[in-house]
Amino acid sequence: MLQKLLNITVNGESLITQLQQNHAQALSAFTDNDELLQTWVDGFKLALADEKLSSHNLSKQVYFPVKLESNDVEYHLLCPLFSSALAHNLHKKVTDTRFGDSKDIRDARRANKYDERMDISFPNTAVQSFGGSKPQNISQLNSERYGQNFLLNTAPPTFQAQVKPPINNTSLFNRQLTYKVSTYLRDFKAFLSKLNPEENNFKVRYKRDYHFILPILDQLMIHAANIQTLLAGWASESHCKLKPAHALWLDVYNPHEGFQREREKLDWQAVIAADFASWLIKQLKNDEKYRLGDIEHAYFSKVCLHQLKRFEHNTPKLAEA
């Protein structure tokens, strides 16, 4: 309540401002006694600063070592302090972006309408609550925030691996691709291990294709598309170890005429489909409960070849790029 009293504004000037200027005209209406008025001023000024600065014994303190020239080690004390004023300003900024003009800007964006103002947002914020059911009992600023304090996201950035041409690999089906689809492979193996030999109906085949095989192929196509955006001509380098069929698929804009003639034959598609089937069976073959053989290899190859033809049909050719 004291803080609320100090923030009361009279004639455009708050009591706290007057106290900082060493006068309190706002209080002169309550007494004609100058000595009593000065006593009030001195008493209220005590609320503006502590006579003795100290921190709580449970506050987080970090001693950072500092090496001196004499090889002696001293420490800097790092003591994070909670700034109520900063938290209040942050709360106001975040609230304004959610319920102020920024809301209208986001509505315009969703409706595909133009808005000249900048869209400002604070993603992945957390809310810290103070005061329980009675936040007004903690502080005036906390009461104005309804006991809420926003915490900004401080998680480390997520870096994406840089896409490079697989010139040091003999096959596209390498460790990098296996890592990308590891979740699908794990779930696929779990699915197969629970199947009984007599289960071969439409429902099982549908789940096998659309829950596992096709998602893995989608990741394969995305991986290939990222490589195809790289600077063309890398497959013709003398030190490239990649299998010719895989190179023909991935280095789609290679300017060498001989390379493009071989690519236009499309013989490489069947090779990649067969390699995909062999790779997939190898990843799934670690359980005695199910056996994958030539029939599964032929089927996986067929599904891959179908998706590969669709992918190639939608890939711009060298003359179109």
Identify the notable features of this structure and list them briefly.
single chain; 13 helices; mainly alpha
Question: What report would you give on this structure?
Answer:
With 321 residues, this protein is mainly alpha-helical. It is built from 13 helices and six strands. It has a two-stranded antiparallel ribbon. It has a two-stranded antiparallel sheet with strand order 3-4. Strands 5-6 form a two-stranded antiparallel sheet. Strand 3 and strand 4 (73-78) form a beta hairpin. The termini are far apart.
Summed up:
The protein has 321 residues and is mainly α. The chain is built from 13 helices and 6 strands. Helix 8 runs antiparallel to helix 9.
Strand and helix map with partners:
Layout: H1 2-6, E1 9-10, E2 13-14, H2 15-20, H3 34-45, E3 62-67, E4 73-78, H4 84-99, H5 101-110, E5 126-129, H6 140-144, E6 148-151, H7 175-180, H8 182-193, H9 202-228, H10 244-250, H11 257-264, H12 268-284, H13 294-313
Antiparallel strand pairs: 1-2, 3-4, 5-6
Helix pairs in contact: 4-5, 8-9, 9-13, 10-12, 12-13
